[in-house]
Amino acid sequence: MNVKTEIPVYDINNFREYKTQGLVASRFGHYAKAHAHLHSPHRHSFYHLVFFSQGTGHHHIDFKQFEVKPSSMYFMIPGQVHSWSFASEPDGYIINFSKDYFSNFLSNNTYFHNFSVFSGIADQQVIEVDEDTAAAIVESFEDILKEGAVNGLLRDDLVRSLLLQIFIRAERASGHKIEVTANSYNHTIFRNFQKLIAEHYTTLKLPKEYAALLYITPNHLNALCKDIMGVSAGELIREQVILEAKRLLINLDLSIAEVADKLNFSDHSYFIKFFKKHEGITPEKFRKSNILQHGK
């Protein structure tokens, strides 16, 4: 990717591999050779899962770097920015599925909220599995690929069931406790808070503004954020602003002042101070370091 362009967003319909009702399933080696965009920062409008059986290198998720190695798994949710760099030839499996792929299969439309691997928090979306778990996951991937070659009875439902098995095995291997109370009152509020941040981070910067939209007190919002995520509501808002700033800084056609303006900072010098305070470097230095990592 020419880093002077905006980060591209790929839709599942951009891909021609085995696809049925919003699903793409492929061996990763074939997929990587067919899609050069993997090596440059990009986003998806769909969910994305990769399991490596071989290969080494690095994976950047929302500007955090993770190691690529056999028996490692990577989960992505729509909107996250990522890129790959490989030191040796990779292989394994890749699954892309649309936001509504499970909508007619699961009665609980918040089911994925139970899984830390779909949290959108990069550190929780990269896991390593043991030998037995890897063998079971590989078997499920192979069965999915076999189903893609035939049009058997209830094929799509079987594929969805196999995918759910992979998610559950991965979640168990992650060591994170599945949050069985994800549909509780506080968790519902927290998920709504996350959605509101994603929608209004440029205009609403204070926890009390979000608390008002959620019809709760700022203290209640702060308490549930600390209980669920271990950080304050204000920190979650700032993290979203910083992440979006990084995504904008990738675009060299935008000046630092224009990035600040898009994030609704009235003074670009204040934006520079804000960014440096929370990242330890200036926006310009972040931009230059990103060019060294991804520039062509």
TrEMBL record:
Residues 191-289 form the HTH araC/xylS-type domain. Keywords: DNA-binding, Transcription, Transcription regulation. It comes from the Bacteria. GO terms for molecular function: DNA-binding transcription factor activity; sequence-specific DNA binding. This is AraC family transcriptional regulator.
